[in-house]
Amino acid sequence: MEATIPGFKTIDLPWHELELWVDPFGRLLAAWPGKPPVIVEPVRSFPWSSPANHIALVDEKGLEWGLIPCLDLLQTGPRQMILNALEQRDFVPEILRIVKTEPNSPPCHWTVETNAGVTDFEVISLDDVRRLDSDSVLISDSQGLRYRVSDHQRLDTTSRAVLDRYL
């Protein structure tokens, strides 16, 4: 479903005219000039490979209200509101060091140091540890939470050795 401006396709919409604000309840609202506001949540279509492009604005019913082709099409204020909402929604702790894993094969318990502090989680399967590209790795725990290693080559020797067992 495309944003509702008759005669326009999503790509052609005047994104610089999109109005965004946060209501007293912390919800993000979007509207075109002269149109009623809609509560929306921004969702990245390609969070790892193209984080600033193809941002869906999803309404309260989970329906796509609009698809922003590129965040650069927005004015500075609305762009920053979208980025703030995405940052809260897509927060993925960065693993800085793997303290230990027990046992050495799944299912296993991991203790890691992240940019948000030390945490413990369980990895159920080898499939839960996967490369995103040549350097970065995404790890999903048993609760569905995700952790990222941006560049596994920058990890200390022990952490790299542990991670290499799973890749």
Note the total helix count. Answer: 2
How many strands, which pairing sense, and closed or not: the largest β-sheet?
5 strands, antiparallel
Mean pLDDT score: 89
The first-to-last residue Cα distance is 39 Å
* Strands in their spatial order, largest beta sheet: 1-2-3-4-5
Characterize the quaternary organization of these chains.
single chain
Say how many strands there are.
11
Unreliably modeled segments: 1-8
Q: Specify the helix fraction band.
A: 10-25%
Strand content: 35-45%
Q: Which structural class do you get from the secondary structure elements?
A: mainly beta
Name the shape in a single word: elongated
**Helix-strand pattern:** EEEEEHEEEEEEH
Structural domain tally: 2
Radius of gyration: 20 Å
Pfam family, one: DUF1854
Organism: Planctopirus limnophila (strain ATCC 43296 / DSM 3776 / IFAM 1008 / Mu 290) (Planctomyces limnophilus)
Protein name: DUF1854 domain-containing protein
Domain DUF1854: 40-166
Structure explained in plain terms:
This protein has 167 residues and is mainly β. The protein has two domains: 10-89, no CATH class; 95-166, no CATH class. It contains two helices and eleven strands; from the N terminus they run βββββαββββββα. The strands form three sheets. It has a five-stranded antiparallel β-sheet. It has a three-stranded antiparallel β-sheet with strand order 6-7-8. Strand 1 and strand 2 (28-31) form a beta hairpin. The protein is elongated, with a radius of gyration of 20 Å.
